[in-house]
Amino acid sequence: xxxxxxxxxxxxxxxxxxxxxxxxxxxxxxxxxxxxxxxxxxxxxxxxxxxxxxxxxxxxxxxxxxxxxxxxxxxxxxxxxxxxxxxxxxxxxxxxxxxxxxxxxxxxxxx
Length: 111
Description:
This protein is mainly α. It has a two-stranded antiparallel sheet. Helix content is 79%, strand content 4%.
């Protein structure tokens, strides 16, 4: 990056942190999709519980990545990418909808 005084070196923490965020996000999304396919094909209670845990994990990691993206861009440590931020918001909405639908279906079965 270049600023008024010349080139600015990016910190080693950010160079290591951003790939870890992306790998964790991709891993959770892949697991979530796999559990969703198994649950939709008629999986047992264990698979449904694993899907719920993965939905909570997807929600948590998406919120964490969105907050860190915004905070690093506000501190001018990293560039803000609107497309990536909107993707994170979409993942947050999908995870919330999955958890809401699961709790709705569970409450219907109880009555």
